[in-house]
């Protein structure tokens, strides 16, 4: 059975931000959109707000994103105030990236971003790995894109971790993400593998609240 698709009409500028953010993280636009949807779906939106977005936002770029069955069910249960799913979520996603551009890309980012990729393997607690993988499957994103997002864009306020039952986790990062990872690990006098476990702990804490 084919996975559900989320068809979207996006603002041109927002789509360009999404494409550049995805390129910087070494992932697909689908993963960048899924990361945004997690934040977007934490809130509810009344008709007045959506009408305002519709009046202020031009949607001119069509795209489609594969989503999980769980995400599809969640989206179908949201009141869209008479708008099609394509337009309703296109407006919210466009608004999110237009207003959070600095969270995903820097002013000096360009098409010259290093798109090379590499694999990193870490040892992680099995139970925590399972929680993260289940979360990513539910929210239609790869584990690597979630880690990339946290490395690039989120504060890591954890300074320790524990491993009860060892498991291996393979991550694929763009060279841009790897460079940021190495710099952040070095600035805290930790190895990158240790730092990635701190990232995992931060993810667990954030998705559990």
From TrEMBL:
Source taxon at top rank: Bacteria
Protein name: Uncharacterized protein
């Amino acid at each position: 059975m084919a996975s559900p698709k989320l068809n979207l009409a996006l603002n041109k500028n927002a789509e360009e931000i999404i494409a550049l953010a995805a390129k910087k993280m070494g992932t697909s636009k689908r993963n960048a959109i899924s990361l945004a949807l997690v934040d977007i779906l934490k809130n509810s939106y009344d008709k007045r707000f959506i009408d305002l977005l519709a009046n202020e936002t031009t949607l001119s770029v069509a795209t489609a994103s594969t989503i999980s069955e769980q995400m599809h069910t969640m989206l179908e249960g949201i009141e869209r105030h008479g708008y099609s799913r394509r337009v309703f979520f296109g407006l919210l996603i466009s608004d999110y990236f237009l207003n959070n551009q600095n969270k995903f890309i820097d002013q000096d980012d360009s098409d010259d971003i290093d798109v090379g990729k590499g694999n990193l393997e870490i040892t992680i607690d099995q139970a925590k790995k399972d929680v993260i993988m289940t979360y990513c499957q539910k929210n239609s994103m790869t584990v690597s894109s979630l880690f990339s997002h946290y490395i690039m864009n989120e504060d890591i306020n954890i300074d320790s971790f524990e491993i009860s039952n060892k498991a291996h986790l393979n991550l694929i990062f763009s060279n841009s993400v790897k460079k940021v990872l190495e710099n952040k690990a070095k600035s805290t006098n930790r190895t990158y593998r240790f730092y990635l476990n701190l990232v995992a702990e931060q993810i667990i804490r954030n998705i559990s609240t």
